[in-house]
Design goal:
Blueprint (H helix, E strand, L loop, with lengths): L3 E9 L7 H20 L6 E5 L1 H10 L1 H12 L3 E3 L14 H19 L17 H7 L4 E5 H6 L11 E5 L2 E8 L1 H6 L5 H12 L5 E8 L9 H7 L2 H11 L4 E3 L2 H7 L14 H6 L3 H16 L3 H4 L11 H4 L1 H30 L18 H13 L17 H19 L7 E6 L8 E6 L2 E6 L5 E7 L4 E2 L27 E2 L6 E2 L17 E7 L5 H5 L14 E7 L2 E14 L2 E13 L5 E9 L3 E11 L9 E5 L11 E13 L4 E24 L2 E19 L5 E11 L4
Parallel strand pairs: 1-2, 1-7, 1-8, 2-3, 4-6
Antiparallel strand pairs: 5-6, 9-10, 10-11, 11-12, 12-13, 14-15, 16-21, 17-18, 18-19, 19-20, 20-26, 21-25, 22-23, 23-24, 24-25, 24-26
Helix pairs in contact: 2-3, 16-17, 16-18, 17-18
Length: 730
């Protein structure tokens, strides 16, 4: 029988911002036991990739891991892959940052493990053709990608037994197809099944190369895998089986294959990823249709033949599917450009020594930033490019508030470092199409606060950064309809207890009450969303969706920038039509958002009806907090004892309220002029995790409301002000 070469590539990753206990558990359950196992089988060669967040964790908590891997590299058993240090989606970040992150990883690997990496792991295998040049120019030679991506390019399965060359602008890198059959067999099938896959490759002729490349978390972190892989001995049986079959199965590194095996030809891969990712990136309606189509092909026995020609969406589809993802990317891009602009100035100053006396930077940024601060800002930016919080498939990701919060924390910290070179207090107003929707937004920035306003979308505030605390107060998540929501039982239709199985793909539904969360909100969960409601509406009705009497919540405003008493702001106006009791009443809304020189955010309203009006005017504010638990975050009115955020409240005649966030050490104070009625409830979503469908706390919804009555020309004025301060020591 012909022999076959097997490359075993293990990719270990934990995202920036993941909980400390998750890092520790993954290390004890998967990463360390795998290392211990391969140490016992020196004849088995392995390729290993650990991402930057893990490498930093090892340094702080398990330095022995790095030393042990270094020893395996020195004896030629392990090859270390490079890549983007903080595991970004390379095609979704600026080219300069992609190059910088890859260089950072290359330098780290050379220093820590004794050899410069020749190959790389591509985050989520998200490929765009232009990356060939980016990777080549970073000094890397090869990378593994899913065999699905090769099949989309028309390569037949029988030919996927070795590396190919791909190029961009005349420079080439090798690409290795990862075997889907091996991914599905390891570690879920017995070792003999892996041998069967390898035999099928060996039968194609001499020189066949098979690649297994997948997450190390499959080997101990995923539910049930630690017992299967380690306690019950699957991994050692697998390694022993490979050792016993060395007469025809040779384990090798990518470097050895690249040096010894000729490429099987040129290939031009389309923009792609693994098939599940391309499915998840589709809009939910299209995803449902896609799943039905694949199911139809499977039922008709045509999936193997026609499946390679069925492609889903692309990773960037998440930016149109989820407004929250797009806004994080735009923040990242803005901060990246600020850093790049500062770097360009630094490069110029190296040549010119100094700017001409009195010359200020054109973009209003700092003239100089110390090199060490600039380097720290870049690192914070790159941490904020970690991919996991920017998308959602079937587990966590974008829906996990601690991951989203971490991204904003690092991006705001990077921005604060860059802007920190300005002396004294400052402010800056800018009009730009920030979110790439064809309509302008207004960015108000100062030394203490950022406030981003969307006049074309109801004059809403979609980002509010407290620079001192590196905190985006609006890093919230709306409810989105997901394909896996199909089949969730209605309350009362099932027993929950230890968990039930829904009719959708065996999805475990962990508690009752999730059906009402399995839907899409009518608007993103941002701030200053203005509602006109019937005067007798109750909190429960509004929480369930309410009934709008006008289009003020999302209508477009005319606007202009303003300045008043040292404050900068945007002044907006529009006329909406409020329909109540069968009568239409035009109402002129003047809305002003001010960023005050004292670091407060003030939103003012003047309402002037052109007829008789009797409604509730109810602005909505969605605020980001990590937990509803009272011991960490509490809601206060006056001197009353605080409440947790997990239950709704109905309050009357509230002039001032506050939220004390002990996790951040910050106090958010909210004042209403005049005193207002207030409704609150927890902002929650239903999303899937490894354990099943669960409720996720995303923050607090606060609705301030006033009764507005009067005839034509009767002007009513309201204001809501937000102030931020460090939480007093207890």
């Amino acid at each position: 029988m012909n022999g076959v070469t097997l490359v075993l590539c293990i990719h270990n990753h934990q995202p920036v911002g993941n909980l400390p206990g998750v890092f520790e558990d993954a290390y004890r359950s998967a990463y360390l036991p795998f290392l211990e196992a391969i140490e016992e089988f020196p004849e088995i060669k392995v390729v290993l990739h650990n991402t930057g967040p893990l490498l930093e964790w090892y340094e702080a908590h398990a330095p022995d891991y790095i030393e042990r891997v270094r020893a395996l590299v020195a004896r030629g058993q392990v090859e270390i892959l490079g890549g983007g240090f903080y595991e970004p989606i390379l095609c979704a970040i600026p080219e300069r940052d992609a190059r910088g992150q890859m260089q950072m990883m290359t330098d780290y690997v050379a220093k820590s493990f004794g050899e410069r990496p020749r190959g790389m792991w591509l985050a989520e295998r998200v490929w765009e053709p232009r990356l060939a040049k980016t990777i080549h120019d970073a000094g890397l030679e090869y990378l593994p990608l899913d065999d699905y991506e090769f099949r989309l390019a028309g390569i037949e399965d029988k030919d996927l037994a070795g590396p190919f060359l791909t190029e961009e602008q005349g420079v080439a890198v090798r690409v290795f197809p990862i075997s889907k059959k091996l991914r599905y067999a390891i570690p879920f099938a017995e070792p003999e099944e892996t041998l069967n896959v390898l035999r099928s490759i060996a039968e194609r002729g001499e020189g066949g190369v098979a690649v297994f490349g997948d997450d190390g978390e499959k080997l101990g972190v995923w539910p049930g895998t630690h017992a299967h892989v380690h306690t019950n001995g699957w991994l050692k049986r697998f390694l022993r089986t490979l050792s016993e079959n060395r007469d025809w199965v040779t384990t090798a590194t990518f470097a050895e294959v690249a040096d010894d095996a000729l490429p099987r030809g040129r290939v031009y891969l389309p923009t792609s990823s693994y098939p599940e990712m391309m499915e998840w990136a589709l809009p939910t309606g299209a995803r449902r249709s896609y799943e039905k189509f694949l199911g139809k092909l499977g039922d008709d026995g045509l999936l193997d033949e026609w499946g390679p020609f069925v492609s889903g969406g692309t990773w960037k589809g998440f930016l149109s599917k989820y407004d929250e993802s797009n806004l994080m990317v735009r923040k990242m891009m803005r901060v990246s450009e600020k850093i790049a602009s500062t770097q360009r100035r630094a490069d110029i100053l190296e040549t010119l020594d100094e700017l001409e006396a009195g010359q200020e930077p054109a973009d209003g940024g700092p003239a100089t930033v110390p090199a060490a601060v600039l380097a720290e800002a870049k690192r914070e930016l790159w941490r904020g490019q970690c991919n996991c919080a920017y998308w959602h498939g079937i587990f966590g990701g974008l829906y996990l508030p601690h991951l989203r919060t971490a991204i904003y924390d690092h991006l705001i910290r990077a921005e604060r470092l860059i802007d920190g070179a300005r002396s004294g207090t400052w402010d800056h107003a800018e009009v730009t199409d920030y979110d790439i929707d064809g309509r302008d937004e207004v960015l108000l920035e100062s030394d203490s606060i950022n406030v981003y306003v969307a006049p074309s979308r109801g004059g809403t505030i979609f980002e509010l950064d407290v620079r001192r605390a590196d905190w985006n107060v609006l890093a919230t998540m709306s409810r989105h309809s997901e394909a896996y929501h199909d089949g969730i039982p209605e309350d009362g239709d099932a027993e929950y207890g230890e968990g039930i199985q829904s009719i959708h793909d065996g999805l475990n539904v962990k508690e009752e009450g999730l059906a009402r969360l399995a839907c899409s909100d009518s608007h993103p969960a941002v701030a200053a969303i203005d509602h006109f409601l019937a005067p007798d509406v109750k909190r429960a009705e509004m929480e369930a969706g309410g009934v709008e009497l006008g289009d003020s919540a999302w209508g477009s405003y005319e606007f202009e920038l303003g300045r008043r008493n040292g404050s900068i702001g945007v002044e907006m106006s529009r006329t909406t039509v409020v329909t109540a009791d069968g009568r239409e009443c035009p109402v002129t809304i003047e809305k002003r958002v001010w960023l005050t020189d004292g670091g407060k955010v003030r939103v003012e309203y003047d309402l002037t009806p052109d007829g008789d009006l009797d409604v509730l005017f109810a602005p909505e504010w969605n605020l980001s907090f990590l937990t509803p638990e009272k011991e960490w975050v509490s809601f206060h009115v006056g001197d009353a004892e605080g409440n947790g955020l997990g239950k709704g409240m109905t309050l009357d005649d509230v002039g001032a309220m506050r939220v004390d966030d002990r996790l951040r050490g910050e106090r958010l104070s909210i004042s209403c002029e005049p005193a207002a009625g207030v409704w609150t409830w927890p902002l929650e979503t239903a999303s899937r995790s490894e354990g099943g469908l669960e409720r996720v706390f995303q923050g607090l919804t606060v609705i301030t409301h006033w009764r507005v009555t009067g005839g034509r020309g009767a002007r009513a004025s309201f204001a809501v002000e937000f102030a931020f301060s460090p939480l007093p020591a207890e």
